[in-house]
Specification:
single chain, 50 residues, alpha+beta, 2 strands
């Protein structure tokens, strides 16, 4: 069974949420690793990833 991992140096997750949502919808990776989100933990848009 294939297992997909996507990794992205996103450089601000909040500015790129529409692109992230499209990536998740079109490619549906099993794991998404985001680097350089540049957002404090309390402001991370975690609901979009559930």
């Amino acid at each position: 069974m294939p297992f997909t991992v996507a990794t992205w140096n996103i450089n601000s997750v909040r500015l790129r949420m529409p692109i992230v949502e499209r990536l998740l919808k079109e490619h549906a990776p099993d794991v998404l690793c985001l680097q350089e989100t540049k957002v404090p933990d309390e402001l991370f848009p975690e609901k979009a990833f559930r």
